[in-house]
Amino acid sequence: MDSAIDPRLTCPRTLPRRVPEDYQPPYPSYSARAATRIDQVVMSCLGVQYATEAQPEQAFEAMQHIISMFSGPDGPRHHDLSYHRDNQDHHNLMVVAYWLDPAAYARWSSSPMVADWWESDDRLQDGLGYFRETHCPRLEQFETIYGYQNDLPGIGAVMGAVTGEINEHGYWGSMRERFPLSQTDWMWPSGGLTVASGNPADGGRVVVKGHDNIAVIRSGQDWKHAAPDQQSLYLDKIQPTLVDGMNFLRDNGQAVGCYSNRFVQSIDLDGTLLGETYNVGHWSSLAALERWAETHSTHLRIFATFVKMAATLEELRLYHEVSVSDGSNQTSEYINCHPATGMMRDVCR
What we know:
alpha+beta; twelve-stranded antiparallel sheet; two-stranded antiparallel ribbon; 29% strand
């Protein structure tokens, strides 16, 4: 049985595991594995926000322009598109893009094609909101888990390989123990969110500065290829419980250490909704995410519902990726977004 931790990142463990050495997981799961030597990755959430039904065409044109800027050698290795309506009744189109080389991302984001567009006064005057939330964890600062080994989403789509069955799953605390860094580091946070420039209440351009070990989770559910009866079971019996939990984090997350939670549905370039959802959540720490998962009623209901019906949902594809990163490897930028958008919500408290 494989370990989720890449052999080249294995070291003598100074922090204990939560299961005995002879632990055997109850079902198979897998992790993404780098096919070539990489040291750091980039995930960037690029969003377009609009407030009224009169602007969708303009917003989709802006999203398509962002995608057009991905062309060239420094563009991302993978990206996907999604839509969600937030609790301020604003519509959000989001492109989540991945790079395996922070230097390539830096060249892309600073290129005239991208920088001139982002920094143009037109972004302040075209009636749309924009956000760009980017974090760059080192390889030892993130983990992945999938219930399958083919066509991995998210960061798995660019890592290039996948493990065999892994040992570190099926128990509370296994998420943390899939982090290579967890062998020697508790990954405690430092400090809080601060406004580096601008004022969220005034709109315009705002930059929020993060802190060490903010945790980011992307957790997905894909029913596109499930049989009709399994799709109905998931959508009617399981998804409502999941939505309740995601809405709790969206609306009340600050009480449990969640800075931002977006539960999104995948779309194509024309905006057609696809049979896949995922959340992107930013947390004050990995420990805060763990506490909610292990103890909060909203997550325990999700967990219990999935466990109860898992045996009948073999075609439902579930996964997540979780990372922490250094404060210097995070940027959160907003243009004309409402002040409860993303990281601005809690920095305004």
